[in-house]
Amino acid sequence: MIEFDKTVEMIEKKSKFYGYMLYCRDENSLKEALNFLKNEHKKATHICWAGRIANPFYEKAVDDGEPSQTAGRPILNVLQKKDLQNVAIFVVRYFGGIKLGAGGLVRIYSKVAGELVK
Q1: Which among 47, 51, 78 has a CA at the least distance from the CA of 65?
Q2: How far are the Cα atoms of 37, 42, 64, 91, 106 from residue 74, in angstroms, in the given order?
Q3: What is the CATH topology of the domain spanning 6-117?
Q4: Taking CA atoms, which of 33, 48, 65, 68 is between 20 and 30 Å from 105?
Q5: What's the pLDDT tens digit per position in 25-78?
């Protein structure tokens, strides 16, 4: 079982968002956490994430089916602005039936990530 360093839950227009932050030293720990969340949230619509590792340098953002640049990139932007290294943030979304639009998605994914890094 993976133990996350911080978690948060938010609801936006009936969609549920679960945010997880993990300190990680390499890509393998990041992949293990993603696999763990996929197993824990089998019915989730999306598991979007971003991570930054210092050495060797690694940076990635994944939208997981959300419109391009509306989920992973906003999460990564939060990590970059706070200059966080060896950290990954995962946001699990359960679709609530109401589309949020590109702007709404960017706002909620940024908000979840922002709460996790506080």
Answers
A1: 47
A2: 20, 24, 13, 11, 6
A3: Ribosomal Protein S5; domain 2 (3.30.230)
A4: 33
A5: 899 999 999 999 999 999 999 999 999 999 999 999 999 999 999 999 999 999
Q: What is the distance between the alpha carbons of residues 80 and 87, in angstroms, rounded to a whole number? A: 11
- Phi and psi for 100 in degrees, rounded to 5? -95, -15
Asked if 73 contacts 61 with a C-beta cutoff of 8 angstroms, the reply is yes
Strands (E) in 1-118, as ranges, are 6-12, 15-23, 46-53, 58-62, 87-94
The pair of three-digit structure tokens given for residue 87, joined into one six-digit string: 């950290």
101-117 helix and 72-81 helix, angle to the nearest 10 degrees:
40
3-class DSSP assignment, residue 113: helix
Residue 94 CB burial class (10 angstroms; 0-12, 13-18, ≥19): middle
> Model's pTM, two decimal places?
0.96
